[in-house]
Records
---
Amino acid sequence: MKVILDAYGGDNAPLEILKGAAMAVSELGVSVMLTGDEQDIRRVAEENSVDLTGMEIVDCQNVIPVEADPSEILKSYADCSMAVGLQRLAEGEGDAFITAGSTGAAVVGATFIVKRIKGVKRAALGTVIPCAEGCYMLLDIGANAECRPEMLVQFGLMGSAYMEGIQGVKNPRVGLVNIGAERTKGLDLQLDAYGLMEKAPFHFTGNVEARDLPLGGCDVAVADGFVGNIVLKLTEGMASFFSRSLKGILLKNLTTKIGALLIQGGVKDFKAQMDYTEYGGAPLMGIAKPVIKAHGSSNAKAIKNAIRQAKLYHENNVVDVISRGITALAAEKKEEQGV
């Protein structure tokens, strides 16, 4: 398959993007289309001994800044590396697109250039987060600060398709993030969404409290983008806090340092579990073709794993699974209305 890669998205572009692409070509058997300044890409690759075999370059000089209004990707920055990559995806010149650039621009660009799956109300950003039971997907994490109940139902369907197709979770448990487990908890959004999700074609297990997410309370955690982003940022902050605290404890004195040597294998495993570079990026669910938003500070390893993620997304036909689910939801709604 061919992955289209924004060579100038992210803090470490283009070098880490090129290194990650080279790793993916070598290890994953994919070909890569790079979008960006061709002369600069070749210069950076030559200076850092990055092999560009298996890659083609689409020359475009412009880059959309992270501080730019996201809608400008359709106007002033319609010729930027991100927009050109999305255009090539829409035209069928590649099977998936990845960028570590502006999240807002990626959402707007994917929505209006590549388009949404028919019937999808809004695309949602999802991310996989480690937990006691392995991992769970949280969505939306910021693409839609305000949501309607039917949007949350679609998010649950999208997340379920991803966790089954990509993570291999059979019949994923979908939970609605809320302030209590009882079905009577929450605001109108959660109360209305609960009733709809009970009838949806996925394994809905009810409300899930934030404290239960790290313990494996569900496989897919559904929230509006405002709540989801808060959950994500708090999770990231707590992970950093625990990591620093553990390091301080283990390096406190000679005795603890000896103890640290004895458990260093377990500490390394824990660190790897919490490493975002292992997961690659956040899929933009609901778009008609695979679009992955990599972390802005992605290194080569993260880019390689984002490409791996895109490859699995494509090979497991996640877009088709979501499309069939959306069609089933629409048919069910028509049946209820007696249409």
---
Amino acid sequence: MKLESLIQYLDSYLDIKGFPDYSGAHNGLQADGKAEVARVAVAVDASERVIRQAVDAGADLLIVHHGLFWDGNLRLTGRRYRKAKLLLDSGLALYSAHLPLDAHPEVGNCAVLCRALGWEPVGPFGSYGDRQIGCWAEVDSSAEELRSHLSEVVQGPVRLIQGGQDRIHRVGIVTGGAAGMMGEATEEGLDSLVTGEGAHHTYQDAMELGVNVFYAGHYATEVWGVRALAAHIEDRFSIPWSFVDDPSGL
């Protein structure tokens, strides 16, 4: 498939141009590559290790959740030069989708994780600009039961800050680093929030707001979208794909 055609499809499917995001996200095509795409690799981060593994796997396009430019440093020196050289020498194109991929109702991190937990999203939750990033679901579980279930699904440790009641009925899900949305969760009548990680002060926030917060890992909560998007591409265009796993443990 032509790279240009696939990029046009992804931009439209994910609403790349119409979605607000952080200034460092630079959603969409971040590095041009070969004209034809015969194999896709996907990953959470555009790390040097990931790019090298994608090249070794024979991928023509690498799709990531976190792209190249988060630190705002655009000079092609040091580690950025090494990554750029890998991309240019191999002809590997790089595409990034941050908040548009978190929020997508079909292949987004939040919706896919919600369904992996055995829940169906009831509605959107978690504001960024004029868009909703996450979703919420109705459950019936104790806090510890939910923590254990979430740990099994993400295959890693989950930290529970039990600021609310033990019985849980309405849970918001915003993957990554969305602890700042716990105030919005209480305003929306949710008793719990599932996210990836949060700063030290968010412990007191949860206790004082009366909300249960589950920290399941930034990386572990954001592997879902890129894999679902890759499966969608394969179903629609018959392009094989592979997932490059480079866990941060955070």
---
Amino acid sequence: MTDSRTGWIPPTVIFAGILAGWEMLVRIFEVPPYVLPGPLLIGETFGKDSALLFSSLAVTLRITLTALFFAALGGALLAFVMSWSRWLERSLMPYAIVAQVTPIVAVAPLIILWLDGDAALVLCAWIVAFFPVLANTMAGLKSADPNLNALFRLYGAKRWQVQAWLEAPCALPYFLAGLKISGGLSLIGAVVAEFVAGTGGAATGLAYRILEAGYRLQIPRLFAALVLLSAAGIAIHAVIGWASRRLMARFGMEAP
């Protein structure tokens, strides 16, 4: 219990040391703020521009969470569908792999050209976040004990009953592990899509603020936006991890 309560101390000390060293080097070598601002200037800029940055963050989070929801729903449903037969898995999995391995930065301009507004951004983020949920859920469904599967069949269980009462509980830890991966990927996909939309002049979320700050050489604001974006990613990972632990505890299982 003591280790879990004090586990945050070492990374916090290291982080504080990095910030102190960064600030000291910037001051010693008199690095201009438009090249590399110090942590104190970044913090000051963050406080001054917090309203603008948080309003942009809300847009990015809306896109990210929407894409994550549909990635979790679609990935889990497709995994259950493909698990019904080897033929379905062999027919559909190659297309899921193609969507995963295709660089989103290459197809994002086309998607933004074909779709309007947030729909294009959500689709870009969904493409990035979809595959981990699908692949992990498929692995979980296949991890069910073959002997228990045979016992279910021996007692006359239907295919959907085997999935609901045997395979689904086995797949839950795998699904949650995939969801934790997809949480960060959906944010990355949203940011990439916003960068592409921002280069076209469409003001969207936090990524647009980063582009805008870079164009205007407002480097402290750029760093403040990056810090906020990183904090959002950490928060998404932490919330999914907390929810996973609570959910798995209800089933008497260890969270991934």
